[in-house]
Amino acid sequence: MRFALSAEQQDFAAAIDAYLSTADCDAAARSWAEDDLGPGMKLWHGLTDLGLLDLLDAGGSLVDLVVAVERLGYHAVPGPWVDTAAVLPALSIESGGRLASVVAPPHVPYGLDADVADVRLMLTPDGTYDFAAGERLSSVDRVRRLFEPERGNRVGDAVALAFEHGALATAAQLLGAGQWLLDTSVTYAKQRKQYGREIGGYQAIKHLLADAVTALELARPLLHAAALTAAPRDVSAAKVAAGQAAALAAKTGLQVHGAIGYTAEHGLGLRLTKVRALAAAWGTPAFHRGRVLA
Amino acid sequence: MDLDLPESTLAFRAEVREWLAENVVKLPSFDTAEGFTRHREWEAKLADARLSVVSWPVEFGGRDVSLLDWLIFEEEYYAAAAPGRVNQNGLFMLAPTLFSHGTPEQQARILPKMARSEEVWAQAWSEPEAGSDIAALRSTATPTSGGWLLSGQKTWSSRAAFADKAFGLFRSDPGSERHRGLTYFMIDLRAEGVQVRPINQLDGEPGFAELFFDEVFVPDEDVIGTPGEGWRVAMTTANNERGLSLRSPGRFLATADRLVRLWSESRDPALADRVADAWIGARAYQLYTFGTATRLAEGASLGPESSVNKLFWSQLDVSMHETALDLLGPAAEVDDTWPDGWLFSLAGPIYGGTDQIQRNIVAERLLGLPRGDR
Predict the structure, then answer these.
(1) Measured between alpha carbons, how far is B300 from B292 in angstroms, rounded to an integer?
(2) Of A191, A289, B95, B112, which shows the fewest CB atoms inside 10 Å?
(3) What is the C-alpha separation between A220 and A79, in angstroms, rounded?
């Protein structure tokens, strides 16, 4: 047993970070919300060059995938990454550089970026269908462009593993967003002064941040274990814990930042609303807790 | 990255599981005179099977198993509902300190008797004015011919009501402040000048005692590490108490599994979320510990993650027991297992450094936030 990321996996995460840190991901996300997909697609192509899009097809493991998707969540990269990089391979469909939008009613009722996706699939217990993009809906996370799916033709059998991949990658995205919220709040707490000293020196702030890091640190091994087994109980445990930890980091981050965090100009809101949206995507906490007890 | 147990671990687990299935008995609380005696006998039996200190070197009664095998042992031990370890202060706090800082003579003299619980150890950290602020302690050690004379008072000393020996810090440099000038001593509780006053805990049993020292002679051979360097020596113990050793994941997994079984009897939907979260938390703690074990096996040492551990398990333990009592409803008042466990869980956020102290450590040492007023 060796329960730790390999040097290669850490290097891969660092390479993704290095690329995304030089790009303005937050600006790309805001453009995406305004239907200007250009900057986001540029990121998409860069990440494709790093091998992220077809990671599983190229022999990568699910652990490699969650490591990568955690970084995408960290940088708030817009677009249907979970659908394309995690769910599509479980259906044995190669993306070939195409964008996928996948729904799985009732847990995933709306198609993310379905109007621009090249592949649109609906997962049901009876089989896999294609779908057309219907009415546009607005998400609490404005970067998530959602569409009502209109079911089309049956294109394949039901694949239970596809749902596990979707839930697992969503957990990874949540954890990444939570980690950004924590890191950014810690940095801010070391700089921002009130009453003549850094707010991070106050015990009230320290204790909020200590609880947030504890929740994130303990959720991550659940994610890695679920990526090793892809077993429903493990995936559900990871999804619940990552969602809770990210939500705690979001609330903590907003409280530490104060009003600046409540503005659209600050990156905090991009993650805070994403965390809320993803908490219920690919299975609500109640659904996943039910699977843990099943 | 993998979670596969090696063949040798699987074989060890099978042996442990079989032995426990044949030998586990239910004992009275070790915080009673009769229970204490019965627990000594249980510990001797464990030692005969070479299962009392499996991670220790063979020469001291152990099997020199890896940290992973120790974790698996703990899972089996708790899953079998085997008796609590009466000598846990010795096994999980003093022994790691002796392995790090003790002389070969001290190790050979003390560890084999500890392994069989021929000598049961109490911890003597806190003082009336100190609490979690150990550096504020005042009890003194004065040099004398061949050793030291200890004077002062310790309190909240777990196991001291019936134990044979104790370990703790004393101020050996009268002009020193805070963490400097402290020395780590091992003390015979039967020595002249020691007075033990048992203190009953919430369950009515003397789990604590106050210790009064009036010029108690302790020979030089019972000092651990260099005189005046006691704080550094004690940190080994503190990290072990907060981290891996004292609260192995097996304990919480066993409790979570029992909680899920209890819930299955009623399937009360109002409590389902809390039960699921308990299981998820126990599983998370197990996996986090597997990660720590991997890093330690690769040469890392325990740092502020000990405090992350302690914050997590102390809250998990309380919430699991509260959930169980809520599930039991009015019967919770008279059930013995869950209320006993609940009372014990309440101590978790207090001992070994309160959870507030742990949060400060996590914030300052892990996140690098500035030190501030307390």
Answers:
(1) 9
(2) A191
(3) 23
Alpha-carbon span B265 to B263, nearest angstrom: 5
Is-contact A112 A170, C-beta < 8 A? no
Extract the residue ranges of chain A whose pLDDT is less than 50. Answer: none
Could you give the CA distance from residue A87 to residue A167 in angstroms, rounded to a whole number?
9
B70 with B55: CB under 8 angstroms?
A: yes
On whether the CB atoms of residues A198 and A96 are closer than 8 A, the answer is: no
Q: 3-class DSSP state for residue B139? A: coil
Distance from CA of B304 to the nearest CA of A (A): 11
**Chain Cα centroid distance, residue A84:** 12
Indicate the residue type of B38. R
Contact A237 B284 (CB under 8 A): yes
- The residues near B220 (Cβ < 8 Å, ≥ 6 apart) are B146, B147, B148
If we measure between CA atoms, which residue out of B78, B90, B76 comes closest to residue B17? B76
pLDDT tens profile A91-116: 999 888 899 999 999 999 999 999 99
| CB–CB contact A4 B369 (8 Å) | no
Q: What is the pLDDT of residues B175-233, one digit of tens each?
A: 887 788 999 999 999 999 999 999 999 989 999 999 999 999 999 999 999 999 999 99
Backbone angles phi, psi at A73, to 5 degrees: -65, -40
Task: Specify the DSSP class assigned to residue B195.
Answer: E
A185: chain B residues, CB-CB within 8 Å: none
Lookup: tokens for A125: 């217990």
